[in-house]
Design brief:
The structure holds 2 protein chains of 2 kinds. Chain A is built from 10 helices and 8 strands. By secondary structure, chain A is of the alpha/beta class. In chain A, helix 3 packs antiparallel against helix 4 and helix 7 packs antiparallel against helix 8. Chain B has a 3-stranded parallel β-sheet. Classes of the chains: A alpha/beta, B mainly alpha. Strand 3 of chain A pairs antiparallel with strand 2 of chain B, so a sheet runs across the interface.
Chain lengths: ~270, ~425
């Protein structure tokens, strides 16, 4: 009986440890998410996109006309830039106010629910608070949506802007080298592929190609990726963050550690 | 349940409990995450996904456009040839235009003379016809001069356009040729390195044995010389094989260069031939267009002694000619526009745009990518379902996918993989 009692005590203790929620630290409950696809299906966004598509179509007609009259590639590039600028301006004009209202609506809902970060629904598999409907309601209300009075509270979810990190000199160099290597290998292997006589030969060439590219990636990019992730983890630990996401997935709030990671990488 | 089995069950649970993390600890805070890419690699359907990826990659490799490089001197020669053809086309066009003008005058004169004769106007009627013809000729001559000038300007524009395109092609194709050549050279260098490595490895044992013998201080001079000769022979044999390979590779490279040049020539002849054909059509249609403009000139002034009904008949003849020429012109303009579209497409292709070059391969690629996308989504959905169930069972508050980095939280990746594989065993 003594053994049985002892086992039961240990079991109870283990169960207590395993099952007691919040026994040691409070769970992360201040994360919200939005279904962006659902938001984009609001009639006002659909209409705005249609308007933009019509404008784009008109612009393309003008663009093609001007490009045909261009005398050099530089002229064509200049024309393309001008038209892209016009399209961007129109996009800002048509969709800009809608995005601003949506952002204010997200901020308002976020504040009312004490959320510190709002992410895209795609990256949340389980848990979190779905605020899509609330945001839609605020967005669709006839009243003006006020801008947030204060910045969102500090979050334990961080984010980095990958496009900024891609601009770090050594990352840029590695990416360029990899692109060059891939281009060269494509030429080599496409020439080999052209002389392949059987499906088996082609399969073998393809495997060699995949391995060549993969090996080069491991040699050239993997160390940098590992270094970036390690630097991110270090910064995250120093800032008492739990997890770090890509900026593209964070819609509001969160802790931006891009500059810190960039500085670490540039050392 | 016996006491023994209870103890075993409890022990198993305890072991599990001991291994399982406390998801509410300060390091985890109820937050989990998965590494989706890693899990996908262990998914039962990953083999199919890889096959699709391979098929997509294979099409990508097979459909790399085989563009042939062209030297600047070749471009210059082809441009000169093109210019000559354009000048010839201009001369031909001017001749045809002049002939057409004469035909037009004659036909109209004949028609007007016939109308005047039918109305009983002779003598002065012939003079009137000549006067009208003179007016038409004057107008036609002015129009012809304007047309000639217009055609000259147009021709210069076409030549400039073709020269610019040729120059761009030269630059692009030279770069591509250099890349292809470099790729081939790298491949051969790699082969040489591999051969050298293989030889070194295959002779390693013999070389080591000889070196060990040579390291023996008590070795007599004759035996030492023999060993040194053996070592030199091995080195010479390797060098000879590598040199032979290098010479063969150099020959291969020379042949490759010659083949590239030959392909360039073939390609440029085809491309420039097509340009010449299009250019001829372009010039001819432009001339026709100008001709139709000449023909659409207003009716010549009527002499005062021609009765109103005859004037009306002559005006009707003129309108008939105008109508015919306008119909011709409309058809010519439509054909011209079609040709122009073809030309634009061809110029775009020559400037490196992808214009249907992928063809059937492109359609197959689209279909494969669609299938790949659907399969991937299906796999992701299944992974997320498994992760969701595990998260719920283990009491997590939130679980993320596709995180950038983790300083805390709990990595559920391995559990999801084990769970998924367990379900499919």
């Amino acid at each position: 009986m003594k053994i049985r009692s002892a086992i039961l005590v240990v079991a109870a203790a283990s169960l207590a440890m395993w099952m007691a929620p919040g026994a040691i630290a409070a769970d992360l409950t201040d994360v919200g998410y939005i279904d962006q696809a659902e938001l984009a299906n609001l009639p006002v966004f659909i209409m705005a996109n249609r308007q933009l598509a019509i404008y784009k179509s008109q612009l393309e007609g003008q663009f093609n006309g001007q490009v045909k009259r261009a005398r050099s590639d530089a002229d064509k590039q200049q024309i393309a830039m001008q038209f892209q600028q016009q399209l961007n301006d129109k996009q800002r004009e048509i969709v800009g106010p809608l995005f601003q209202r949506a952002t204010y609506a997200i901020a308002a809902v976020s504040a009312s629910r004490n959320l510190t970060v709002i992410v895209d629904k795609r990256v949340v598999i389980y848990g979190g608070q779905d605020i899509t409907k609330d945001v839609e309601a605020v967005f669709a209300s006839p009243q003006a949506v006020q801008p947030p009075a204060a910045t969102p509270p500090p979050s334990e979810i961080g984010y980095v802007d990958q496009s900024v990190l891609d601009g770090v000199s050594k990352v840029q160099t590695a990416n360029n080298t990899m692109n060059q290597f891939e281009s060269t290998q494509r030429s080599i292997f496409s020439a080999k592929m052209a002389t392949a006589r059987s499906a088996g030969d082609k399969q073998q060439i393809l495997q060699q190609y995949n391995k060549t590219i993969s090996d080069k990636q491991d040699q050239l990019l993997k160390p940098l990726v590992d270094q970036t992730r390690a630097a991110t983890s270090d910064v995250a630990r120093k800032k008492n963050l739990l997890l770090v996401l890509d900026k593209a997935d964070v819609l509001y709030g969160g802790t931006d550690i891009t500059t810190d990671v960039q500085n670490e990488l540039s050392k | 349940m016996s006491f023994r089995s209870s103890v075993v069950s409890l022990a198993g649970f305890l072991a599990l409990a001991a291994c399982a993390p406390n998801v509410h600890s300060s390091a985890i805070r109820g937050a989990g995450y998965i590494r989706l890419d890693e899990i996908i690699k262990h998914h039962p359907l990953y083999g199919q996904l890889s096959q699709l990826d391979d098929a997509i990659a294979a099409i990508g490799l097979q459909s790399v456009p085989r563009q042939v490089p062209l030297g600047a001197s070749q471009i210059a020669a082809q441009t000169k040839e093109l210019n000559q053809e354009l000048q010839d086309a201009q001369v031909r066009a001017n001749k045809i235009l002049a002939q057409k003008q004469r035909d037009y005058e004659n036909r109209e004169n004949q028609a007007v003379s016939a109308a005047l004769a039918a109305a009983g106007i002779h003598g002065s009627g012939a003079a009137a016809a000549a006067q009208m013809s003179g007016a038409s000729s004057q107008q036609a001559a002015q129009a012809a001069r304007a047309a000639d000038s217009d055609l000259m300007a147009y021709q210069q524009n076409v030549i400039a356009q073709d020269s610019a395109a040729s120059s761009t092609i030269a630059k692009q194709l030279q770069v591509q040729a250099a890349q292809e050549f470099r790729a081939k050279a790298e491949e051969l260098t790699q082969n040489e390195t591999d051969l050298s490595l293989r030889l070194t490895q295959s002779d390693a044992a013999a070389r080591l044995a000889i070196k060990m013998r040579l390291s023996n201080l008590a070795l007599d001079p004759a035996a030492r010389k023999q060993a040194q000769d053996q070592l030199a022979a091995i080195n010479a044999k390797e060098s000879a094989q590598i040199d032979a390979q290098r010479n063969a590779d150099a020959a291969t490279l020379r042949a490759y260069r010659a083949e590239l040049d030959r392909q360039t020539g073939d390609s440029i002849r085809n491309q420039v031939g097509a340009i010449h054909q299009q250019t001829r059509s372009k010039l001819e249609e432009r001339r026709n267009e100008v001709g139709s403009q000449i023909r659409s000139l207003g009716a010549p002034a009527m002499p005062s002694n021609v009765p109103p009904d005859v004037q009306a008949r002559i005006a009707q003849i003129h309108r008939q000619f105008i109508g015919e020429f306008r119909a011709d012109a409309a058809k010519t303009i439509a054909d011209y526009n079609a040709t122009k579209s073809d030309l634009d497409r061809q110029f775009a292709a020559l400037h490196g745009a992808d214009v249907g070059a992928t063809g059937a391969a492109g359609r197959e690629l689209d279909a494969l990518q669609k299938r790949r996308g659907e399969l991937y989504q299906q796999m992701v959905a299944q992974v997320k379902n498994d992760a969701r169930r595990l998260a719920k069972e283990r009491g997590f508050s939130i679980v993320f996918s596709e995180i950038w980095s983790a300083a805390g939280g709990y990595d559920l990746t391995n559990q999801v993989i084990a769970d998924m594989q367990g379900q499919h065993e």
